[in-house]
Design brief:
33% helix, 15% strand, eight-stranded parallel barrel, 11 helices, globular
Amino acid sequence: MHIFEPFTVKNLKLKNKIVLPPMCMYAAGTDGLVNDRHLVHYSTRALGGTALIIMEATGVMPNGRITDNCLGIWDDNYIAGLKRVVDSCHDEGAAIALQLNHAGRKCEAESENNYYTVSPSAIAPDETYRTPREITPDEMGKVKLAFCNAARRADTAGFDAIEIHGAHGYLLSSFLSPVSNVRTDEYGGSLENRARFLLEVLEAVSEVWPRDKALLLRLSATDYLPGGTNLAETVEVVKMAKKYVDLFHISSGGITAAPINIYPGYQIPFAETVKRECDVPVIAVGRISKKEMVEEILANSRADLVALGKEQLRNPYWVANTAWELDLPYEYSSMYKRAYDSKF
């Protein structure tokens, strides 16, 4: 089966084509440090056979956290805890990436501080969020530096790859969308201008991130809103970004509430289009759970890798169990091999 074929991009030599996408666990304390719950969560999915673990959105600055209980990487003190997770996943045969993020206008940390949140423009996602400040060019330079420093720390912690979060309405994504970006300077207006800050961050990070290690980018293909980002624009952004990025992770939505028809595999056509139109490797994600759907995506070259999120929250041994159900050759963990020796 295509599911169990290896896949290589740069240093990532994946033993199969299943990915754990980044999903916030909201399990950190207000200090943003890794704890045992993170260690158990990620290590279990690695033990279950997932080839690539992408660790949750991790704030490159204090106001880059989504909540007070999100992980951070704005200080060297975070390296040791992250390295524990990296080493454990490596011990179980998985590659691991870290998603670097600035929450932008969707930051809910420090809820009493109305000056805390920044965005391309002073527009809140909805009435439940505080109104952000318009980020200044000087602050943008500091954000760019924070992404670079975070990348250096991720490398020190031993991550095989990093993923820049340019999706779901967070800071880089909100620059891309006309819904959240009404600037009149060189970072607003045309698509080229709206993509400028993302491309500057990617260029800066690519200069400090080891050239032999993979660099991923997550994008929202569409805002699902009139006048918002659409798939055609995303294709153009990918074409502009591909000189910095080795693997594109294609999602959708998140800029603000929108009418979305959600069904199994609803985002697959976005990944398929980006792969075809931009000639880049892609990860497909979104309500994918059945092995038959995963196999169809891969067999028809609609994506190069498939991310299973909620399904792996329910079933962290999805890969091992799928091999067992299909009677396929598979190297089970020595601890659990006896459970797979027979169907009884």
